Amino acid sequence: MDNTYKRHIALDLLSIGAVFLRPDEPFTWASGIKSPIYCDNRLTLSDIRVREDVENGLKMLIEEHYPEAEVLMGTSTAGIAHAAITATKLALPMGYVRSSQKDHGRANRIEGKLIQGQKVVVVEDLISTAGSCLEVVQALRDAGAQVLGVVSIFSYNMKKGMDNLCARNVANFSLCDLDLLLDVAVENKYILPSDKSRLLHFRDNPSDESWMRN
Predict the structure, then answer these.
(1) Taking a C-beta distance cutoff of 8 angstroms, is the pair 97, 71 a contact?
(2) 47 — phi, psi (to 5°)?
(3) Which of 7, 15, 104, 155 has the highest local Cβ count within 10 Å?
C-alpha cells in the first residue's frame, strides 16, 4: 500500500473525528493518564464513504502481506464488523474472538468455525500497547490456528506496543499511524505545527505529563 492511500485514510479519520486531537484540552483515560488524543474507530462504520475506504484498505493490506489467509478473525468488539465486511470483500470466512470465555452454552471464546492449522489474520481497530490484540492471537494459537499476523486501522506506534508484538513474533500492518496522521493534521490545520512534538512526546511516554506544559 502506498503512502498516498494511508494519508487519505488519515484525513478520513480526522474528518469524522474518529481520531480527535486536543492537546490543550486533554482527555482522561480510565487509568487517570491525561491524553491529547482520542481514538474511536467505531465511527468509521457510521460514515459510508470512510467505511468503504477503510474496508478496501484492510483488503489491500491482507492481499499484500497475507495472500495465503484462509480466515479472518475480528477482535471483540471493535474489530468484528471490520472483519466481516473485509472478509466479504475477500470472499473468506470470518469469526471473532471474545475478550473472555462465555460462562454459558458451549463456553466458546472463539466464535465461528476454525479448523485446526487454518491460516488466520486478526482484524483489529486500534493498536496501542497491543495487549488485548496479543490475547486474541494467543487464544487462536491455543486453538491450533496458524496466525499469520494482524491488520489494524490505526496504530499509536508506541514503543511498548511494538516491543510487545515483536516479543510474541506477531506482525501488524496498519492503515494509518500516529506519525503520518500528525503530518496530515498539521497540513490540514487540525493542529498547530508546535503541537506535533507535544503529541509525539506523549506517545513516547504517556505517563510523563510534561508535554502539557510545552
Answers:
(1) no
(2) -110, 115
(3) 155
**Cα(194)–Cα(91) distance, integer angstroms:** 45
- The pLDDT, as a whole number, for residue 73 is 98
34-45: average pLDDT: 95
Closest CA to 95 of 67, 74, 81, 119: 74
C-alpha separations of 7 from 14, 19, 94, 100, 124 in Å: 11, 13, 28, 35, 19
Give the Cα-Cα-Cα angle 172, 176, 181 (nearest 5 degrees).
Answer: 140
Task: Confirm if 178 and 9 have CB atoms less than 8 A apart.
Answer: no
CB 148 within 8 A of CB 68: yes
What's the rounded mean pLDDT across residues 204-214? 86
Nearest to 190 by CA among 21, 39, 37: 21
Question: How much is the average pLDDT of 120-128?
Answer: 96
DSSP structural state of residue 41: G
Whether pLDDT at 106 is above 70: no
pLDDT at position 110 over 60: yes
DSSP string, 13-39: HHHTTSEEE-TTS-EE-TTS-EESEEE
